[in-house]
Each structure stands twice: as C-alpha cells, then as structure tokens.
Amino acid sequence: MARALVLGGLTTGFHPFWINGPAIRAAIAPAGFDLFLSEDLEILATDGLRHYDLLVNYTTGRNLTPDQWAGLERFVRSGGGLLGIHNAADTFKNVPEYRAMLGGRFVSHPPQLDIAVTHVDPDHPITAGMPRFTVHDELYLLDWMPERVQLLSETHSHEGRSVPVLWVRSEGNGRVVYHSLGHNRETLEAPEVQQILQRAARWAAKL
Question: What range defines the domain where residue 149 resides?
C-alpha cells in the first residue's frame, strides 16, 4: 500500500487541522493509501519524506527553514508526489521557489459561495469522465502561473472571469497537483471532491 503524509498546522484561526486533517485522510484512503497526519515541519528537514510516496500539504501561513525547503524540494524533484489542497497556496511564503513549484499563490477570496466547477481537460486521468459539480466553499483568487501548469478545472468569479480550481505540473521527476477547494469539511466530504482528491493522489504518486 502506498504511503502519504498529510502535513497540516496553521498560524491563523482558519483551516483547523484536527477537523479537516481526518477528513482529508478519509477522502484519499480509498485510493489505496495509508495516510499519516502531522504538523511537524522538521520531517522535511530530516529526510523523513523518504518513507512516503506522496506529501499532502494543508498548512496555512507557515514558514520553512532552509533545511526544510531543501528536503521538500529534494523529495519532489527526485520523484515524490505533492498534492496541495486549498490553503497550500497560502503558506511557505518566505520561500519564493515554493510558489513556482506549486504553480501559484493565494491572493484573496470573497465570502463563501456556491462554486460551480467545470473541467476544461476531459482527457487527463484526474478529470476524465468527471461531471460538473457545485459545492459551497471559499473561492480562492490566485496569482497563478498558466505558463507553468496544465489547467484541468475552473470556475467563474462573481465578475464572470475564469478562476482556476485544479491544475497539475511536473517538477523534476516529481508530479504536483493543486486543488483550490477544501476550506470546509463538508467540501472535503463531497463525493466529487473526494473522487478528484483520490485520482490526484494516485496521479501525483505515479500509481
């Protein structure tokens, strides 16, 4: 069975890991993963990721030491998978290279609303055959890098402009996925979101 580390922790009052961490584990486990939850960033610096096939990032507003960033970069570039969920775009801001690895960063969000998701790449393994769906969640407006990522899913803002929801990219020998939904436990428990996270985990881990 594949092994995944779900890394959480926050410097804000948002995204409680003690609630959403178990929800992420429950969402991804059916895809064939044994998932472990941790808030200890030192696992990145001590080469502890060598025991895992996938890192799921659900941290908020945290910083990395140089050794921690080096461990994360080494893991992904040597072939490990990175799955960033929601607030993964709002963390590690002291390391500009992390934004480039993930493919973008959080800028702002309107009040929570119904988000209608459509898939723009029907051939990718993560989105193939997936129906459109709607969830009530926090819509992240992102400073993203379309030249560095492959967009799979999008929605539209209240102003009518396209907003990315799901993208993938390669980093060295590793694979990176970012999914912008996941503020609420109910979103993480939605069947469509769970299916995307399961597929994303398997794709990132090359399973």
Answer: 2-204
